[in-house]
Amino acid sequence: MFTIQKIKDNFHLSKTFSFNENIGSYTETLTEEFSDFGGFCDIYIEEFNNEILQNQVDVFNNFLQNFKNYLPQINSYIFSNLTAFEKDTDNELIFDVVFVPQNNSKYDLVLICGKKIKFLFLDRRITLRIEFKNGLVKTIKRTNNSTEDNN
Hints:
- This protein has one domain.
- By secondary structure, the chain is of the alpha+beta class.
- The model has no long low-confidence stretch (mean pLDDT 88).
- It has helices at 4-10, 54-66, 71-80, and strands at residues 12-15, 23-30, 41-48, 86-88, 94-100, 109-119, 122-133, 136-142.
- Helix content is 20%, strand content 40%.
- The chain starts with a helix and ends in a 9-residue tail after the last strand.
């Protein structure tokens, strides 16, 4: 379980390159929690004036405890959205990024993940952006630009 203090002590504070110098993220790469899903995952917890909110920590801890419960829904989405030339493999999902925004009305957490599939005779990786709200999957989108919000 993470706390605000544990995040501040163990994560790195990085400021974004924007007009607002008060916004950035506490970042860290977690390996143990995601060892079966690519070996590591980058975590970004948005901050404002070097502060994160207890709600963000609660959302992140809830995700860490329950993310395996979302896997059937994610895999079902992948299977149902493959093209005629694509074939699902038994490879596990690869978690790339977990982002916990501050005071975002659309979502509480974003997971960027991918999976290797067969495209004709080649291996190919697809990327998904999954947005969560109130502990539930709100939207899943296959994307080439994971920085854009799902609609």
